[in-house]
Structure formats: structure tokens, C-alpha cells
Amino acid sequence: MYLEEYSVGMEREFGSKTVSKEEIIRFASEFDPQPFHLDEEAAKDSMFGELVASGWHTCSMLMRMLCDEFLLDDVGSLGSGGVDNIRWKKPVRPNDTLRVQSRVTEVRPSESKPDRGIVKSQYSVLNQDDQLVMTIESMGFFLKKPT
Description:
Elements: E1 11-18, H1 21-31, H2 35-38, H3 40-44, H4 55-69, E2 77-88, E3 97-109, E4 116-126, E5 132-143
Antiparallel strand pairs: 1-3, 2-5, 3-4, 4-5
């Protein structure tokens, strides 16, 4: 999609990612080795009471679902200028299945580069019980349609 194909209020729902206990432990082992992400017994004594995924793992799973849904096939996508307001609302547990709801909040041409613009979006990640597990705001750069 190109910049002109986005509009404020545009919504979509996509993704289906089931996370396993092994994935949670593997990610945590490398990137967030806190006991409640690594060890089921240690997690029992945590505020979660059981093994949970790292919030950063949840962000990574969101990114994968974004890539699978449209970014890898999107000739207009130029990457991101960053994210804001990450909120981990509910822990992600082994065997949770996640999906994404997105809403475009801003579309505007770049002031400095006339061939592109900025799309801001809000993402909500929900589990299989429709519980909100994470919200995040993102800014993406997109090319304008070639003339």
C-alpha cells in the first residue's frame, strides 16, 4: 500500500500466533532472563503465579504478525520512525493465541521528503479470550504512489 491508500479511522484485524512454553523460555533466555519468564517453579512465587512471556516477546510477536499481514508484501513501506506508549495490560501465558486490531490515527505527507509520508497507528493485541494484553502506538513511513 502507498500513503494515499491509508486514511484516518481505517481499521483491520489480523494475525493468529499461539505462543508455546518453549518459545517463552527461549526468548527470555536470550533477551529477558527474569525468573518468571524462564522457570515455571520460580514463576509460581512471582506476582504472576505462573510462567509468562516477556513484554518484549509480545512486542516481537506483534511485529511478526504485522510483517505477515502486510509489511513484507508492501512496496510502499519504508520502515518505522518508532513506537510510543507501549502498555502491557495482561500477561501472555503459554498456549495463548494472539491477534491484532489496528486503527490508523494520522496520515500526513512528509514536510522534508515529497515522495513519502507518515502513517500513525494504534495496535491492540488480544488473546483467545478477547482480553487486551498489549497496546502500542507506531509511526510508519510510506511512499506516495509513483506518478
